[in-house]
Amino acid sequence: VKQLRSLAHHLGPMLWIGKNGISETAISQADETLLSHELIKCSVLDACPLDARQAAEELAEHVDASLVQVIGHRFVLYRHSDKEGIKNIALAR
């Protein structure tokens, strides 16, 4: 987890959760983004009915990803991808 946190530190948000909360659109966007990136940072907007932790846990469950961390209005998700042509994150054991 520490390794993923340090990798996520430099990322900008790739997904924004707005007034619709964890909608089908947000779930499919997160799913597609995780396929090509494995590690994504998401931002929860003020209009969102959920707080960042609630949104993170719900989205992680829907896309079968691991919740790496939640800080303020942002959270980071990780899911290993088997998609060809992407550089996989080599996790230290």
Can you offer a commentary on this structure?
It is globular, with a radius of gyration of 12 Å. The N and C termini lie close together (about 10 Å). The chain is built from 3 helices and 4 strands, in the order H-E-H-E-H-E-E. Strand 3 and strand 4 (about 75-80) form a beta hairpin. Strands 1-2-4-3 form a 4-stranded mixed sheet. With about 90 residues, it is of the alpha+beta class. The mean pLDDT is about 95. The protein has helices at about 1-10, 25-35, 50-65; strands at about 15, 40-45, 65-70, 75-80.
Q: Brief overview, please?
A:
With 93 residues, this protein is an alpha+beta fold.
Explain the layout of strands and helices.
Elements: H1 2-9, E1 15-17, H2 24-37, E2 39-44, H3 52-63, E3 66-71, E4 74-78
Parallel strand pairs: 1-2
Antiparallel strand pairs: 2-4, 3-4
Which percent range describes the beta-strand content? 15-25%
Nearest-integer average pLDDT: 95
Q: Looking at the structure, what is the overall shape?
A: globular
In terms of structural class, how would the helical and strand content be classed? alpha+beta
What is the C-alpha radius of gyration, as a whole number of Å? Answer: 12 Å
In which range does the helix fraction lie?
A: 25-40%
Give the biggest sheet.
Answer: 4 strands, mixed
> What's the helix-strand series?
HEHEHEE
Number of separate strands: 4
Ranges where pLDDT stays below 50 over 5 or more residues in a row are none
Strand order of the largest sheet: 1-2-4-3
What gap, in angstroms, lies between the N and C termini? 10 Å
Separate helix tally: 3
